[in-house]
Amino acid sequence: GRDLLSIADLSATEIKSLLGLAANLKSGSIELRCPRKVLGLLFQKASTRTRVSFSAAMYQLGGQVIDLNASVTQISRGEPTIDTARVLDRYLDVLAIRTFEQTELAKFAQYADIPVINALTDLEHPCQILADLLTIQENFDDLAGLTLTYLGDGNNVAHSLMLGCALVGMNVIVATPIGYQPDESVTQQAKAIAGDRSQVLVTQDAEAAVAKAQVLYTDVWASMGQEDSADARIPLFQAYQINSHLIKQADPNAIVLHCLPAHRGEEITEEVIEGSQSRIWDQAENRLHAQKALLAALLGGV
Ligand code: CP
């Protein structure tokens, strides 16, 4: 099947088409149905937005959802991935997986003959970025030429943002402390995608990074599984907090995004989350519309 393991599995044209479809589904100008199709959610980590938005999207398309997690499957007792994948694809039409390692996700995709969707790994979060681009498109006429500045930990969300922004012709600046930069291989891939159409820059200078930005974006400083190092990170990351001072350095029309969950007072202040430039709640809502478009496209919705 056609998989979505990385946002870069999609072409620029496909991303634009999915965003258009998502906008039309959101406005109600079109309706799509995937009757009798079954989505499996195989989640090995906690999730609020991804789990619920995928479920609601599938129900709204007229399909069904089976909510799986490792503890209720034989995965928890050591059944190999290659066997699990070859069994689940006999029951399901599409499978969204949240797991620790991209290599584990890739193995599922290799052995399952149905579309496999990355619902978050250590490397990427492509579904999040579809919702982010939809939110940016709602606020600005054209994505190409806009500048998004990501501040904080160069993590899975940062990786997918770099690739996704490069694909749609946006400039992307990632400002992180030393030692927390995005993977060099992802940076190089994003630069290759951007070519001479747009800029991909990794820097330590948060204030300079936001100077021309229309979109400011952040995520938690310590992801799931990194809680042990969370306290040590706070002083290192302080200069990368999105607060009212930093926002003033950006484009006056800049919007603020956060994929959530947020740690108020760490990567972002309460004032900014609840302020007039925040589009965080629209962004969370757009997970539903973007993934509905994705499911309909993968399942041949009519
Ligand atoms: N943004 C996001 O993926 O949220 P969840 O972890 O709640 O799914």
TrEMBL record:
Catalyzed reactions per annotation: carbamoyl phosphate + L-ornithine = L-citrulline + phosphate + H(+)
Gene3D superfamilies noted in UniProt: Aspartate/ornithine carbamoyltransferase (3.40.50.1370)
Location(s) in or outside the cell: Cytoplasm
Pathway, per record: Amino-acid biosynthesis; L-arginine biosynthesis; L-arginine from L-ornithine and carbamoyl phosphate: step 1/3
Primary location group: cytoplasm
Residues the record lists as binding L-ornithine: N156, D219, S223, M224
Keywords from the UniProt entry: Amino-acid biosynthesis, Arginine biosynthesis, Cytoplasm, Transferase
Family, per entry: Belongs to the aspartate/ornithine carbamoyltransferase superfamily. OTCase family.
UniProt-listed PANTHER family: ORNITHINE CARBAMOYLTRANSFERASE, MITOCHONDRIAL, ORNITHINE TRANSCARBAMYLASE, MITOCHONDRIAL
Protein's name according to its UniProt entry: Ornithine carbamoyltransferase
Annotated source species: Almyronema epifaneia S1
Gene: argF
